[in-house]
Design brief:
Number of helices: 16
Oligomer: single chain
Mean pLDDT: 83
Strand content: 15-25%
Distance between the termini: 32 Å
Length: about 425
């Protein structure tokens, strides 16, 4: 063991028997507080991006096959057939883990006292049905594979409040199909609330058989085929691969329809652009907190050096060079850094873990689309953050270490 490390280990971080030096307390607290803020910012932004992304992908599939053209200005919807040939072509790509047929039908829900415009999204299983089932607050999701559930719908909390509906209530629905209006009497099976008012105000969920029957279509007809990827980190590349495969299928004569592809990156572009702005906020917070902890550490180390000027003079009189004395104080300061990082990690991660499981910090759903502060703990990011804080602190310790070279042994030994 070199003598610099030995002296640093033997140095006490106390100025007297009453407790730690105020400079030590300030330095450790500054590092701990900065690391807590950085950890919280990182975990909250990751959680927020994860939750909002999942909500957007719950309403819009990763990739959707939609009609390729509009036949006429008077047609509300065009339909496609999810033929076995199209299904086989999707399967041959090996990129998608789930498929779901969807048929949206616009209409009006009417009670004795009020009415509300709505789009009934006909679903069967998987995809958006599972997402809505996870967000039901009253009632339960119907099994749309059963015939008796054909006329049972799930409405949003917004729609239920606007019309005064409760679970098991009956409501008249009027649907616009071509040039005619068709009426149905539907039962409210459940009420959902995703806190995503932009979508909640628009969609109710019913059976695919209901919306297909309203348009006199067979079981393979829909206006959207929802496709779900195994890996959502890259959505555009699989969509392009499927598009090329479909174009080749048309050229080879396997497909005879006209199709287009839509991805959630385009349909949810507004939300994803908003989320990308959060990354800039995190970078600003990390830089500011890093500078705060660094300057706090520098000022504390200056005070520590001034408190030990006598010791520095004695070491210089015994032949110690400036570089060795600087190492002593850098080792001493690193003890403070590690102590601050330990406190910051324990407290910061403790609060984040409690929030992750207990959700004790609320949010306004109207403003943030979530009822609580979301948290996602990525341990690789946490490790990288700790390494970055330690390296930054070590680099900033070199600044006060230069003070050692300006201290004269003759005057420092007599320093009071």
């Amino acid at each position: 063991m070199n003598y610099e490390l030995m002296i640093a280990r033997r140095l006490r971080l106390r100025t007297d028997e009453r407790g730690l030096s105020p400079s030590i307390v300030i330095a450790v607290a500054g590092i701990a507080l900065s690391l807590m803020v950085m950890t919280a910012s990182l975990c909250i932004v990751l959680g927020f991006k994860h939750e909002i992304r999942n909500k957007v992908m719950g309403f819009d599939a990763h990739v959707s096959i939609i009609p390729g053209h509009l036949d006429g200005a008077t047609d509300e919807f065009n339909f496609i057939e999810f033929t076995p040939e199209l299904c086989n072509l999707v399967d041959e790509t090996g990129l998608f883990g789930g498929k779901s047929l969807v048929l949206d039908q616009p209409g009006i829900l009417k009670t004795d006292n009020d009415f509300e415009g709505i789009v009934v999204r006909g679903v069967r299983e998987g995809g958006s049905r599972d997402f809505i089932a996870d967000n039901i607050v009253e009632g339960c999701m119907p099994d749309y594979t059963e015939e008796e559930s054909k006329n049972r719908i799930v409405v949003s909390r917004n729609t239920a409040d606007a019309l005064g509906l409760n679970v098991d209530d009956r409501v008249f629905a009027y649907f616009f199909t071509g040039n005619s209006v068709r009426a149905r009497r539907l039962d409210v099976a459940a009420i959902y609330d995703t806190h995503f008012s932009d979508y909640d105000k628009v969609y109710a969920y019913g059976s695919l058989a209901l919306t297909q029957g309203l348009n006199s279509l067979d079981s393979l007809a829909c206006n959207k085929v929802e496709l779900y990827l195994h890996d959502t980190s890259d959505i555009d590349r699989p969509a392009l691969s499927l598009q090329n495969a479909m174009m080749k299928g048309v050229y080879d004569g396997r497909l005879d329809g006209v199709y287009r592809l839509s991805t959630v990156n385009s349909s949810g572009m507004m939300y994803f652009n908003w989320l990308s702005l959060l990354d800039t906020n995190v970078v600003v917070i990390l830089v500011l907190m890093g500078l705060v902890s660094g300057f706090t550490l520098i000022s504390s180390l200056f005070i520590i050096i001034l408190e030990r000027i006598n010791m520095i003079g004695i070491l210089k009189a015994l032949g110690a060079v400036n570089g060795s004395i600087r190492k002593i104080f850098i080792f001493l300061a690193q003890k403070m850094v590690l102590a601050g990082m330990l406190v910051g990690n324990v407290v910061g991660l403790g609060i984040m873990l409690l929030q992750k499981h207990l959700h004790f910090i609320p949010l306004s759903p109207e403003a943030y689309y979530l009822s609580y502060v979301p948290v996602e703990i990525n341990w690789w990011y946490i490790l990288a953050l700790n390494v970055g804080v330690f390296m930054l602190s070590w680099a900033m310790l070199l600044i006060p270490g230069q003070l050692v070279s300006k201290i004269s042994p003759a005057t420092s030994i007599r320093y009071e």
